Amino acid sequence: MAKEKIRVLYLDDEQENLSAFKAGFRREFDVQVANNSKEAFDLIQSVRPHVIFSDQRMPEMTGVEFFNAVRQIYPEGIRILLTAFADVKDIVAAINRGNVYRFVSKPWNEDELRNTVLNAYEIFNTRHQLQLKVAELEKANEDLNRFIYSASHDLRAPLMSILGVVKLARYEEIDEPSRQYFGMIESSVNKLDLFIQNIIEYYQNSRDLSEVREIDFEQLVDDILENLRFHSANPKLRFHTEIEAPGTFKADEFRLRIILSNLISNAIRFQRPEHPSPEVRIKVSCNDKRAEILIEDNGIGILQEHMQNIFKMFFKAHPQHSGSGIGLYIVKEALNKVEGDISVSSTPNVGTLFSISIPNRA
Question: Which residues constitute the domain of residue 327?
Fold first, then answer.
C-alpha cells in the first residue's frame, strides 16, 4: 500500500511566500495554500491537513488568533506559526495555551522546515493512533461490562430457583444427613449469589451516571438491615443504630446504598460465633457540610499486616470465611465517585471500625 502523503496547509497574505512554499515542498507533500483566513478555513474543512502553517502578521487576524479558531473546529491539525517579527510575548502565550506546536522564523530554512513538517506529522499520526486505541479499548470495556452485567443477571435466576427448592425441602420429612446436605447447598448458593450481586454493583458503580437526591438515613439504614438480616445465622446478633440528621442531606443514593450495604454485610459476616453478645453499631451524624458514618462490630477483626490490602480487588483477609473479595474494593470505588473518604481501625478478636465521610450535595 502506498504511503500516505503528508497534507500541509500554509496561510499567508503575501503571494510570493505562498509560491515559494509551494514550489519548495509540493513534490514531497500535498501542499495547499491560502491568502486569507476564510479560504484557509474552507480548505481545512475539505482537505483536513495534517500540518497547518500560518504567518503571524495577517490583515484580518493574527496567526495566533487564527490558530485559536482552528483549534475549535479541527483540533487534530498540528499548528505551526511563521513569523519575521520578534512577537515573543504572543508566541510564548500561544504555545502555553496549546494554540501552536512551535514557531519558525522567516525567512525559513528549507531543511529545517522539512524536518519540522516530518516531526509534526509524526506527532499527528501518533495522536491519531492513540485515539483509535482508546476508542477500541472503550468499546471493548463497554462490551465486557455489558456482558458481565447480562451474564450476572442471567445467573441469578437459576440460583433463586435452587434456593426455592432448598427452602421447600425444609418442609419435607427428610433425614438429618439430607438436611445437612441441603444446608451446604444453600450456603454455597448464597455465596455465589453474593459474588454475582457484587459484580452487578461493580458494573453499576462503574457507570458515570449519578442521581443526587435527599437522603433519609433512617429509612436507608432500615432497608439495608432488612435485606441483610438473612445473611446472619447467629440469632444473638444485635444491631444498634444512632442517627442524627437534623437538616437536609443530599447525595448519590445508589452509591451510598452500595457503600453501607457492603460494610454492614461485612460486619455481619465476620462475627465471632462463640461471642456471647455479637453486635453491629451504625452511627450517622450529618451537618450542612458532610455526613460522618461509623460502622463498628465486635467480630474477628483484621490483622495489621492486611490493613493496607483490604481495599484491593479479590483480596481476602479471612480466606476461610465466605465473601467475594471485591466488596471493599467496590466501597472504595463508590466513595471515589462521591468524593468521600474512608478509614479503618481494627484489633483481631476485638472488632473493626470503619469511618466514612461524605460531602453534602444540598
Answer: 209-362
